[in-house]
Specification:
single chain, alpha+beta, Butyryl-Coa Dehydrogenase, subunit A, domain 1, Butyryl-CoA Dehydrogenase, subunit A, domain 2, Butyryl-CoA Dehydrogenase, subunit A, domain 3, about 50% helix
Amino acid sequence: MTMLEGALGALPTYELTPEYREVLDASDRFAREQLYPLQQKMDDEEWWPEDVFKKMAEVGYMGVTVPEEYGGAGMDYFASALILQSVSKWNPAVGLSYGAHDNLCVNNILRNASEEMRRKYLPGLCDGTLTGALGLTEPGAGSDALGSMRTMAKRDGDHYVLNGSKIFITNGPVADVLLVYAKTAPELGPKGISAFIVEKDFPGFSVAQKLIKMGYRGSPTGELVFDNCRVPVENRVGEENKGVAVVMSGLDLERTIYAVSSVGMAERALELAVDYAKTRQQFGKPIAAFQMIQAKLAEMYMTLEAMRAYAYRVAAACNDLEQGGGGRGEIHKLSAAAILFCAEGAKKIIDDAVQIHGGAGFMWESEVNRLYRAAKLAEIGAGTNEVRKIIIAEELLRG
């Protein structure tokens, strides 16, 4: 399947194929019926519904890119992005955790781990009995996650011994399986990093604290500690000191998939704004009758459609990204630009939606307020907006 219909010599339609349209429509129905009702409690209580991934697995939304032989759905990356769009639209907190599980952890293991590790971990990650996470960011290593990394892994016989900590880790407090990066040759800097699969019960691993966030409050985020944590050698992902390729390829896919997630959130904000403008009465008529409100809605729609076209284009470009691909070249530039554009667009759309709601939008318990508090993360996570601009400029100026 391809995203676009049309043949060489004919004008493309720039529409989803019927197969992709069914994926989007079906996942939208599921998210609206099953995930949307969880929003309020998750935000109010920072509550994570422990069975939510099992429910998603039952309808084929876990391990979307994983072949059926490992227990997955056997679909492609573009389909996984559409599913995340739907989930993020109706429950952003589940969307954040789902993206960390299915893309950052599961898809990375599929693309980079040994056959033994795939068969060991993917079935449980695909049926919802295991929750995945990725550990990269550290207290002193955010935008410079590779150069400033201090978590170390030292070979000791048939194990590696990890020491260090990771911070702001989505799913960290509830994860069973974590893809963790550590320096195995610190003298090599970023070129001395390796990737490891760590289980929550490995000796020396612990969750130091669950962190309280402004947005995405139902998605658990934590600080992880590795204190002489012993990891079997076979749990290394890829070759020793070759983890930077895993990181960079994964970051391009992460940026792209969260660009599509921003589309889902912006889509919901526009729906809420339109509905409120039709029903809110002021000066004897619905506020939708006022031209300034109409102008806002028109601009929100225009921005959303531009976001959708851009995010879909880049997701399609990532669809067949080869193993180890990314982290350089055109896809590196495109993915950075996609999340930069979509993050800024979503923030503007959601800000305008709050403005249209007025005082009601300023209230903590309102849905548009939850979207507003969550939207900021897209400008920070997977590389800040500033880092994304550096990536784009470097690729434009390269050579």
